C-alpha cells in the first residue's frame, strides 16, 4: 500500500475542557485511505497555526503572489478570548474548510503537513485530565444543523447498539453505561474497545457490552481460519481463565479466530486458547506509536465474564466451544503433516523415475551350464575336439 492520505474529514462538534484551564477543542472524524476512521481533538489556535504554515508552503495556491490563483480556503484568525459562543459559531466555517482542504490537489491535500496534523496523537486517546476538576462537557453538532459542503461526500450513518449490562468506566477516556442504553458507535477497533456517543457524551466502551439492534452480531465476526495467521506477542499476559493462554513478549503464535470482543482464539504449537488482541501485532508489521498507546490500556472484558446479561440475542448467538477449536486445530495440523508426508514420498518417487540410465546398476548376464562331451562332439569343429579331449 502507498503513502497514507485522508479521504474525508467531518467535524463532529466540540468539547469544553477544564484542565489545565478552561478551553475548547474541536472533534474531527478522520477517514483514511486504508478505510480506518479515527477521532482527533484540536484547539482552534492549533488549526490556525497549521493553516498559516500551509499557506507559507504553497504561496501561489494561497494567493500571496496573485490573489486570483488562490485555492486554499480562508480561515479567520482566533479571537483574543475564544468563548463558547465563538467556538460554536465557528463550526460551519471549520466544516467547510476541512471539506475544501481534502479536495485540494494531491500535492496539498496529501502532503505530510496535512497528514501529520490529523494523525492520532497520544492525548487523543488519553486526554490529560485531573480527577479533582470538573469533567469535560461534549457538544455535538446537531443533526438538523445547516447543511454544509461535507454532505456532498455522503452522510456518515452510525450504527446503534444496546448495552446488555451496566458498565463502570475505569478511566477518563471511557464512558459508563447502564443496561438498555442506546449508543451510536463512531469507531470500531479490533482490540475490543469501541468509541461511542450517548446523547452529548463520548468515550471508549468494551464491545462485549454492546449488541446490535437488528439481530445477533456473529455475522460481523470472521469465520475461524484454522490455517492460522502469524502474529507476534507485543505484551506478556498471564491467563486468568482456564481457556486463556499465558504468553511472553516476543512469542510467535497463530491467530485462528478474530472475535469482536477483542479476545482472539490463538494457537501456540498445538495448544489453543484466548488472548487479548491489543497485545498482538501481525508478523512483519512495523510497530506504531498509536498501537503502542493502545497496548498500554487494560484488556477489555470478555463476553463470557459479563454477569447479569440482559441480552435479547443471548439465545440466538452462535458460540464455538474451546474443545471445538482444539479438535479442529489438531485435525488441521495432522492433515498438514499428512500432506507434507505425501508430497515428500511423491518427490522421492519422481527422483527415482527421473534418474538417468547411466546411474542405474546394470543387470549381470546369467552364466550358462557347461556343455557335455557328446554335445561338443556333435556340434563343435575338430579343433575344439582336440582341445578338450
Overview of this protein structure:
The chain is α+β, with helices and mostly antiparallel strands and 389 residues long. Among the domains are: 6-124, Phox-like domain (PX Domain); 229-313, SH3 type barrels. Helix content is 25%, strand content 22%. It has helices spanning 44-57, 84-89, 91-102, 106-109, 112-117, 122-125, 289-295, 322-353, 373-379, 382-388, and strands at 6-17, 23-32, 37-42, 137-140, 159-163, 182-188, 193-198, 201-206, 210-212, 229-233, 252-257, 263-268, 271-276, 280-282. The protein has a five-stranded antiparallel beta sheet with strand order 8-7-6-5-9, with no helix packed on it. It has a five-stranded antiparallel beta sheet with strand order 13-12-11-10-14, with helices on one face. Strands 3-2-1-4 form a four-stranded antiparallel beta sheet. A hairpin with a 2-residue loop joins β7 (193-198) and β8 (201-206). The longest helix is centred in the C-terminal third of the chain and has 32 residues, at 322-353. The protein is elongated, with a radius of gyration of 36 Å. Residues 146-156 have low confidence and may be disordered. Keywords: Cytoplasm, Phosphoprotein, Repeat, SH3 domain. This is NCF1 factor. GO terms for molecular function: phosphatidylinositol binding; superoxide-generating NADPH oxidase activator activity.
Structure summary:
Residues 4-125 form the PX domain. The protein is built from ten helices and 14 strands. It has helices spanning 44-57, 84-89, 91-102, 106-109, 112-117, 122-125, 289-295, 322-353, 373-379, 382-388; strands spanning 6-17, 23-32, 37-42, 137-140, 159-163, 182-188, 193-198, 201-206, 210-212, 229-233, 252-257, 263-268, 271-276, 280-282.
